[in-house]
Write a structure and sequence with these properties.
Two copies of one chain form a homodimer.
Chain A lengths: L2 E6 L7 H16 L3 E6 L5 H12 L5 H8 L1 H16 L4 E4 L6 E3 L8 E4 L2 H8 L4 E5 L2 E3 L5 E3 L4 H12 L4 E6 L20 E3 H9 L7 H10 L3 E5 L10 E4 L12 E17 L4 H11 L7 E3 L6 E9 L3 H13 L7 E14 L9 H11 L4 E7 L2 E7 L3 H11 L7
Parallel strand pairs in A: 1-2, 1-9, 2-6, 3-6, 9-11, 10-12
Antiparallel strand pairs in A: 4-5, 7-8, 11-12, 13-15, 13-16, 14-15, 16-18, 17-18
Helix pairs in contact in A: 1-4, 6-8, 7-8, 9-10, 11-12
């Protein structure tokens, strides 16, 4: 019997009506002949409620107890889903992490899966169970304590089960109907992608297309797990959703897969820093310790022993960054002439595995922005991505112009 | 290190403020030098919420999944309590049923405890843990599924842990401060008992003094577990609460320990039933199947092959009883001349282990009621209890008069 993994997030199981709707969706796949493994999150809001109680106990708390408490929400939805499927004559049972078992590291609240036993669940499939409803986001440590994988861990659970059971595909049901070439709120020409490569998805996810947890995509890439993102609130057809897969499966030959953007960025430049080996570490280690989420980093060519250092971070991290920089300056660790902070920038990126074999994408991007009169303030590039910082007011214009120029509204 | 078991019900852990209050109470016992095992219920209301969802899935549901869902409430409070104790520098950890493990039968939702392993918890006590916070009401079946013990099962969990660990005492914290000689709402002369024998507690519990779950008292009696009932909302002193213990520990020599009453009873009499062997079964088996909770049964002396059969049941079971009797009559199973239903009676009982060695308690009881002009409608007796049915309007008067006559306001 082929196996399918289906994962539903908290909004999809937020109440009994939605649980019934999801159960029907699962029933459709069972009717097609699949043995189904369902991975569930807690009802939306429930995990936050539990976390709130835990945080009330103490500012610093035992992560093992945190895990024991917050994992309970998934146990509830798993049991309710099994009951709902049973009521629809679909033989199902619930599985908590320790029952599977899902063996993890002992890094509580951020555990990693070491091993998923297939024996217990497969034995039940052999006995006629059609659906194994698994509480996502949780496992068990070597010490027999309950662990959780951290926020978004249910996606990771789903991918890991797909790999462990050699399932045909992992369908991630969410509140969007797939991955788009860009944010549909910015241009109505945004097109849902039928397929996207793992690497592209990783770049898009970290750039703000918050559809899938980054770790789950990394895991899927490592084990070549075919992931499908689709909406739990729409009728499904053959072409529903977006398949995240190995690039070899992708026939479209668009060079660029998507245009991503991040609105609330800030650009911070240290002018005329006294350059020496280790200067980057002297700046960025304290920033990291201060909780500043540094994204792009650019250092221009040194002249006469001095350099300009520019980095970007979210606007609401600027205050923290400023005080961290003031501290390292006053400690004498670094020496610079001026600090320039620009809180009115946004980041725009084009992403596509096609860039590996196509040159000229960067040049085309710069030309498009130039034609629109948009000044580029910072550039960084990777193998499959080019990102620029522009004045925030031009962000939508930049995205629309790039989306048009790379013809993303047309399938490749 | 002596061990103490403390059990707190749902109202005692209903929110974080109350959890903190309970944690302080536990800390007091730890400071006295005890290793403490704490048994917790779910936050009040939470189990009902979970049960509500389960009942929404189907009229008849898989009890295994019911157990997996409803047991989650205790896991939450156990974790939160461990965190709260830790925050007060009392080394604690939470234990779910399967982690202890608490081995039970596979009768889901009404499982019985077969065995409680002491090894894991004792190993942690040896390492310096001072409090084991155990999720009550739950266990694990031989098949590795989560089981629950049924409503009130946390009391049973507490007693079973006390027996398994050879703990000094089992303190059951509840919303009343002990067991009273009678309902304090009926007479302000009602006195809290310092001690009460297991057998007396059993008779009082089933008569409506709903302080402890009957099964937990039975278990405590079997293993001679000293149970103390006390309030979680009051400061504790040496004499707090009521100790439920073996009768050998009781020095008071009051013949009667308490007067119990049950307001909403009904008396049903089948007049002139054709008597034959098996007639009682022919009547009461169908009544039981119809869900009628029959309490007292009296059959008077047969005359000329006919007898009168009287029984009592809760008033709201009368309709069911009537239709069940009509059905067995029409089937020809039984034959009687008339059916008399009295919906205006109440039950009053005196209970005391002293009755075993003291004669004349029944006579004294009847005389007291006679003096007050209260007519006795039905009498039943057991070794340590005498119960009568009287007109409902006389119930309070009967309780007050008996309480006075047996001098229950005075310690014996």
């Amino acid at each position: 019997m082929p196996t399918l993994v289906m994962k539903f997030g908290g909004t999809s199981v937020a109440n009994m009506d939605r649980i019934r709707r999801v159960a029907k969706r699962i029933g459709v796949e069972v009717a097609k002949g699949y043995d189904v493994i369902v991975i569930l999150s807690a009802m939306s809001g429930k995990t936050n409620e539990l976390v709130g109680w835990v945080e009330e106990t103490a500012p610093i708390y035992d992560a093992r107890e945190y895990d024991a408490v917050v994992s309970s929400g998934e146990n509830v939805t798993a049991g309710l889903m099994a009951l709902t499927l049973d009521a629809m004559d679909v033989p199902a049972r619930s599985w908590q992490g320790w029952q599977v078992p899902v063996q993890t590291t002992s890094v509580h609240s951020a555990a990693r899966i070491n091993d998923i036993s297939t024996e217990n669940i497969n034995a039940k499939f052999a006995e006629g169970m059609k659906v194994a409803v698994v509480a996502g986001f949780q496992g068990i440590s070597e010490e027999g304590r309950i662990t959780t994988l951290g926020r978004g861990g249910s996606d990771t659970t789903a991918v890991a089960f797909t790999a462990a059971f050699g399932a045909e595909r992992c369908d991630i049901y969410t509140d969007v109907d797939g991955v788009y070439t860009t944010d549909p709120r910015i241009t109505d020409k945004a097109r849902k992608l039928d397929k996207i490569a793992f690497e592209e998805m990783l770049e898009l996810a970290s750039l703000g297309a918050k559809v899938l947890q980054t770790r789950s995509v990394e895991l899927a890439m490592r084990f070549k797990v075919r992931l499908r993102v689709l909406s739990s609130f729409e009728e499904q057809t053959e072409n529903s959703g977006t398949l995240v897969c190995d690039e070899e499966e992708i026939m479209e030959d668009n060079v660029v897969a998507g245009v991503a953007c991040q609105r609330d960025e800030a650009k911070i430049t240290l002018i005329s820093v006294a350059d020496r080996p280790g200067i980057a570490a002297a700046i960025f280690v304290p920033l990291s310790k201060a909780g500043v989420n540094v994204d792009m980093i650019v250092q221009n060519i040194s002249e006469e022993g001095r350099t300009d250092m520019t980095f970007s971070c979210p606007v609401d991290h600027v205050a923290r960054a400023e005080s961290a920089i003031a501290e390292i300056k006053s400690s004498g660790e670094i020496n610079f002439r001026d600090l320039i902070i620009d809180k009115d920038v946004a980041k725009v990126s084009v992403v596509g595995i096609g860039m590996r074999s196509h040159t000229g994408v960067a040049a085309q991007m710069f030309e498009v922005l130039h034609k629109e009169g948009i000044n580029i303030k910072v550039i960084t590039t990777s193998e499959i991505k080019i990102s620029v910082l522009v004045d925030r007011k031009y962000m939508e214009l930049a995205v629309q112009a790039l989306h048009d120029a790379f013809e993303l509204d047309k399938a490749g």
